Give the backbone structure.
Amino acid sequence: MHEAVNTIAGRKICDPKDVLEEVLSKGWSAWLVLDPGCHPDALAQLYALEPDRQKTLLFFDSCLEHMHELSPRFAPVTPDSPVLDWLEEHDPKGWGMVVASDATSEDILAHLRSLLMVRTEGENLIFRVWDGRILARICAAMPEETQLLLGPLRLVLTRTVEEGWVRIDRPDRPAEPAETSGIVHSCPWYHFSTRHAEIFSEGRALVMARNVVFSLCGSTLDALPPMPPENEPFPAFVVRHVRRGLALGLSTQGALELFVRCCLLHGESFPDTEVFPALRIFAVGNVNEDAAVSAMRTICTQEGHRG
C-alpha cells in the first residue's frame, strides 16, 4: 500500500496551491467539490468566502437528485481562493476534493454524476466519489482503475485518511477516436468488485454506516424513521447497529439500512424473536439475507411492537 501511494496514482504533496499554479500555467481549470455535511459551517463558509463564484449541485439532474439537500457543491477555485485556506485550517473529515481538467465543467459534472451509483454483485450502491479519501484509496491500491475513475479529469487533489495531501494524476492515454471521446456512461456503469471490498474491509462497518446515514437522511419527510434517543448522535447509532447487522450475517447496504430502520422503530431489542416470530431466521448460523429482508420489510411497516 505504501509503495502504491507514491506512484502516479497518488503522489503525496506539501502545498496544493503549487499544484493549482501548475494547473493554471497549463491552461486548465480547477473546481472544488465540497460536501456540506463535513462541517456545520462548510456551506456558509463557501458562500461567504466565494460569493461571486457559481455553485452547482452535484446531485442536480442525477440519480440522487431527490437528495438535493445533501448534495455536494461544485465551484471554480484558484490558488488564491479563500475557501482553500479555510479547508486547510479546519481540515474537516471527508470535505471532498479539488479537480482539474482541460474539459468543460459540463463534461466534468456529467462524469462525476455517472459515478454516484456503482454496480456490485448484489445491488447498486451510492458511491461517495466526491470524498477524495475514498477515491485516493482505490487509486492507490488499484492504479489500473485510475483512468476509468478520473475520466476527463486531469488530476485530483485531496486529503488522505492520514491527513496529508495527495495528488492523483490521470495516466496519459493514447489519442481516442472522435466517436469515442467524451462519451458519458449511463449511471450505474462502474463495477465494485471483490477487490474493492478488500480495500475497505477493515473499515467496512464505517463505510456501510456512512452510506446508510446518507441514504436515511435523504429520505422524504413521510419516510423518515424516528431518531434515536437524544443522548446518542444519529451517526453513532447507525454505526453501532450496522455492526450488529453485520455480526448477524447481513451484508448488503439495503439489508443493513432496513435493519437500522427496524432498530429505530422497534428499539434496542430488535430482532426480538419472541415479539417477532418471523425473525427466527436470525437465530440460525448462516442467515438467509433475502428472507431476513422480506421479514424486516414487513415488520418495518407495522405499528407498535416497540421493544
Remarks:
- Confidence is low (pLDDT under 50) at residues 1-7, 177-181, 303-307.
- The longest strand covers residues 29-34.
